[in-house]
Task: inverse folding
């Protein structure tokens, strides 16, 4: 495992920007609500299944 971490560190070490995509479970595990959870906020009134695709992102980047 250390070699995997070291390999990733070597690849991104000189990067100016790094983006990490994780699943909603990562947030849920540490107590951050996911957009699938029933809660108030920007997702109220939106069907999460219609927002979780690449095409939805392309159609409305600001919303998604």
Result:
């Amino acid at each position: 495992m250390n070699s995997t971490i070291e390999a990733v560190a070597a690849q991104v070490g000189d990067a100016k920007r790094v983006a990490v995509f994780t699943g909603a479970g990562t947030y849920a595990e540490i107590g951050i609500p996911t957009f699938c959870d029933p809660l108030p906020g920007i997702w109220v009134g939106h069907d999460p299944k219609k927002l979780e695709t690449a095409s939805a992102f392309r159609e409305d980047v600001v919303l998604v």
Q: What stands out?
A: Residues 2-12 form the longest helix (11 residues).
